[in-house]
């Protein structure tokens, strides 16, 4: 019996795969490689190249690999770009999730861990976000993730699906030199690519309603996040009680300006970032409590900000060689 990790060739998904392997759990990866890399998938893990929108392929994969649960990481994850590409975002994040759930139902697969997002909160009117904080997404991306949570909720009512949604915040760092964040939109890879090319990094906006004018977020290490996916899967396998949603938050905010200062220290490269315009759909501040996840999903901030930057910098340099 195996867990299927959709998007398992991507930056986050590949760390999830390794976390499952480290705990002796069988996994299979399905990824269309639109943003993932087949080289990120261990040779010992079955890899299916294909799309979550392909229901027939999902059913074939379920049966061939004896899948009994799904970790759904695949999706279109760029909040700013989603404002320009709303229909694409809904297709990749809503239609694909509905297709996956239909195939799971047809194959009698009754457990799923869903990759959701802090973007469901929009700009919260509270200093510390909890799972009960009002949802008010400000981008098609955030809306699509909230709809994904609703799909799981409604399917649970209809079929008894067992599920949980993990709301991610800013995922950074690396747990393996071979696994780097290659997103063309995320802060860390953009900054490191600029430094490696001898260019000055650029950040999006310094006029947010925060102490230094730059966005404030929870920054969490990808390997810590991956461990909580395993804990969620084990909880579902054991039939233990599980919350419908969990915030994987640190409880402490870090600004983009503070990130830049840490990058300067870690890399030894002195620079003053260029200031670009703010991105559509980016709220000023999101900082969340991870108390529920700490209680149930082994959630913990095991890495300091400096360790997050150092591991991300090391993997970026390794990828550039």
UniProtKB/TrEMBL annotation:
The reaction(s) this protein catalyses: UDP-alpha-D-glucose = UDP-alpha-D-galactose
Keywords associated with the record: Carbohydrate metabolism, Isomerase, NAD
InterPro entries noted in UniProt: Epimerase_deHydtase (IPR001509), NAD(P)-bd_dom_sf (IPR036291), UDP_G4E (IPR005886)
UniProt-listed GO biological process terms: galactose catabolic process via UDP-galactose, Leloir pathway
Residue ranges constituting the NAD-dependent epimerase/dehydratase domain according to the UniProt record: 3-249
Cofactor field: NAD(+)
Associated pathway: Carbohydrate metabolism; galactose metabolism
GO function terms (MF aspect): UDP-glucose 4-epimerase activity
Database matches in SUPFAM superfamilies: NAD(P)-binding Rossmann-fold domains
Pfam families, per the entry: Epimerase (PF01370)
Main enzyme class: isomerase
Presence of keyword ATP-binding: no
Enzyme Commission number(s): 5.1.3.2
Database matches in NCBIfam families: galE (TIGR01179)
Record-stated family: Belongs to the NAD(P)-dependent epimerase/dehydratase family.
Protein name: UDP-glucose 4-epimerase
Gene: galE
């Amino acid at each position: 019996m195996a867990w299927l990790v959709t998007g398992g060739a991507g930056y986050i998904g590949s760390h999830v795969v390794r976390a499952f392997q480290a705990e002796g759990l069988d996994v299979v990866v399905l990824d269309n490689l639109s943003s993932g890399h087949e080289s990120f998938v261990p040779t010992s893990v079955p890899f299916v190249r294909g799309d979550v929108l392909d229901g027939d392929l999902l059913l074939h994969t379920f049966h061939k690999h004896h899948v009994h649960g799904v970790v759904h990481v695949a999706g279109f994850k760029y909040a700013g770009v989603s404002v320009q590409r709303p229909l694409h975002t809904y297709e990749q994040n809503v239609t694909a999730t509905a297709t996956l759930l239909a195939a799971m139902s047809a194959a009698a697969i009754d457990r799923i861990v869903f990759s959701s997002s802090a973007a469901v909160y929009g700009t919260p009117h509270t200093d510390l976000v909890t799972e009960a904080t009002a949802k008010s997404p400000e981008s098609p991306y955030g809306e699509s993730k909230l709809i994904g949570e609703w799909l799981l909720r409604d399917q649970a009512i209809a079929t008894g699906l067992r599920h949980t949604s993990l709301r991610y915040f800013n995922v950074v760092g690396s747990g393996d030199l071979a696994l780097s964040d290659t997103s063309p939109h995320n802060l860390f890879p953009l900054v490191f690519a600029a430094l490696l090319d001898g260019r000055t990094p650029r950040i999006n906006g310094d006029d947010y309603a925060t102490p230094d004018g730059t966005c404030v977020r929870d920054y969490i290490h990808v390997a810590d996040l991956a461990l909580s996916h395993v804990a969620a899967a084990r909880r579902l396998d054991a039939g233990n009680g599980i919350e419908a949603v969990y915030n994987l938050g640190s409880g402490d905010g870090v600004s983009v300006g503070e990130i830049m200062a840490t990058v300067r220290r870690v890399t030894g490269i002195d620079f003053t970032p260029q200031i670009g315009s703010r991105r559509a759909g980016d709220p000023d501040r999101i900082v969340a409590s991870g108390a529920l996840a700490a209680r149930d999903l082994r959630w913990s901030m095991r890495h300091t900000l400096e360790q997050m930057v150092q591991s991300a910098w090391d993997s970026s340099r390794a990828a550039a060689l």
